[in-house]
Amino acid sequence: MLLATLFTLLAPAQDVVPVIPKPNQIEWGQGSLELKPGLYVRFEEGLGAEARVLSDALSLRLDDDIKRVPISMEDHGSTAPDALGTPNQSIRLEWEDRVLGSEAYRITSDGNNLRILVHDTPGAFYAVQTLMMALPTSGPATFPRVQISDAPRFAWRGLHLDVGRHLFAVDDIKVLLDWMARLKFNRFHWHLSEDQGWRLEIRAYPKLTEVGAWRDATPPYGDRRGSDDTRYGGFYTQDQVREIVAYAAARHILVVPEIDMPGHMSAAIAAYPELGNSDIPGYAPKVQTHWGVHPYTLAPKEETFEWIDTVLGEVCELFPSPYIHIGGDEAPKDQWRQSAFAQSVMQREGLTDEKQLQAWFLARVSKMLEARGRKLLGWDEIREGGLVDGATVMVWRGWENAIEAARQGHDVVMAPGSHTYFDHYPLNPKSELAKGAEYECIGGFLPLEKVYRFEPVPSELLGSEAATYILGCQGQLWTEYIKTWDKLEYLAFPRAAALAEVAWTQPAERDWEDFQVRLEPFLERLQQAGVRYSDPNPEPQTTDPLK
Ligand code: ACM
User: Cβ distance 182 to 153 under 8 Å?
Assistant: First the structure.
């Protein structure tokens, strides 16, 4: 261990391409290539958008005097002189369909030029990210003479954001999407409804945002039972949603919306009390003002299913994602037990317990999605009472949920609380709290190294066909204890970088010592961009990142 550390520290810098996630195959040549003003980007038909991304990034990185790195389409058939003439140096984006698979790319250097070979546009986008991150953060833009052949380990490389507990500006979400793109994440799981706030404009049900988007109070940091007596709320308009979906799509990120049901529904039920179990004693729905699990659940009524169908209809119009996340987590069964109506549905349908009622409920929701050509995705509680055919399971609790679901042929996304909940303390909880109440986290302790060492395929499945059902992994940003964007960045970074490498890089190529060397320039990039992060090796006198 110590020797490995020493070796890494003493190794010459050119032996590390400072890219996160680490490319899967790097062949070293001699020296490096300096990218200079005067450089041209050329692309084959269909790769223009990625060529523009490259040109934009290079234009910023290269000399200020040069306004833009020019781009042009290659025209192999033409004998006419190229409008751009013969450049001193070029980067070419070209198709290569025989060897490379989806999202894969190859970067080669030849003389003064670079070539990027891809099978699809995400591959080209990821090649551009690798190229830009391989350049030093300042000084001459030298690219080491390496040949890189790279492809992701997993198809699902996600980050989740809860906007129910606290919501964030569209521009801030775009910043997160930018960093996700740099780290080759391709799924943004947007958790849009909660007990403490409904955040999505639904045209058919205006009270969801007029009433459901607003709560009367929020617990302050450091006082979980307390109240700030301040009204809090807001929501995303459908135009804003379209803006985010398009912004993400331009970065090859799919936005997967979540409408959590039948639990975590207090806000919607406060807006439309008839959706809930209104026949129980003391029924008094409200938008919740404290965290935790609340008893309000949707009632298994026909009018509730009509409401869900209409809401999902608008959701499907807004989000092209093949997956729609319907939550399914933490839905207490108390109200269904108390409700004569819910009990009558159980009797009518021959259901023996409330877990079966939830499975029946979700099977109906699944049909609504199927009718629209979409797939149901839910937290692992959707296994209770029987998993709907074709459902994808997002595992956040016990790993047996992943093992059993995969063995039954269900796709699985690994999002375990133990390794991927970024709302847990990033550094020692005691020293974090000593810095101030605003450092409070929900609990737990998830240091960077633990994220880095996360293995998404349960060992019981390694080598089996069931392992192929593990689609990938995802980091969670639950926001009970994230009131500001600064705090969100602080908890997201650099743990998201570690998870990106788990999701992208083959296990044999992953190396914690080597990651720490590549992390330094990554942290420098965050700092240059004004993004907060929790420093895994803080200097004692470091200034307070949240102040
Ligand atoms: C969850 O953390 N309730 C999925």
Answer: no
Beta strands in 112-163 (DSSP E): 113-118, 141-150, 156-162
Question: Can you give the pLDDT at residue 87?
Answer: 65
- The pLDDT value given to residue 64: 59
Nearest CA to ligand 1 atom 2: 396
| CB burial readout 171-199, b (16+ within 10 A) else e | ebbebbbebbbbbbbbbbbbbbbbbbbbb
Q: What is the pTM of this model?
A: 0.95
Low-confidence ranges of the chain (pLDDT < 50): 1-14, 81
Ligand 1 center–CA 460 separation, angstroms? 24
Interval between CA 491 and ligand 1 midpoint (Å) = 17
- CA of residue 421 to ligand 1 center, whole Å: 9
Give me the half-sphere count of Cα atoms (radius 13 Å) on the Cβ side of residue 240: 15
394: nearest Cα among 503, 342, 460, 470? 470
SS3 at position 141: strand
Q: Which pLDDT score is estimated for 236? A: 99
pLDDT of residue 446: 98
- Closest C-alpha to 37, from 8, 15, 56, 58: 58
Tell which one of 396, 421, 423, 442 to mutate to probe ligand 1, the residue whose CB is within 8 A of the most ligand atoms: 396
Residue-wise pLDDT tens digits, 330-365: 999 999 999 999 999 999 999 999 999 999 999 999
The pLDDT value recorded for residue 3 is 45
Burial class (CB in 10 A: 0-12, 13-18, 19+), 9: exposed
Q: What is the pLDDT of residues 415-444, one digit of tens each?
A: 999 999 999 999 999 999 999 999 999 999
CA of 329 to the centre of ligand 1 (A): 6
Residues with CB under 6 A from ligand 1: 329-330, 379, 396
Å from CA of 396 to ligand 1 middle: 7
Cross-strand partners of 52: none
Taking the CA of residue 330 as reference, the ligand 1 atom at the shortest distance is: 3
Return the residue matching tokens 């074709």: 390
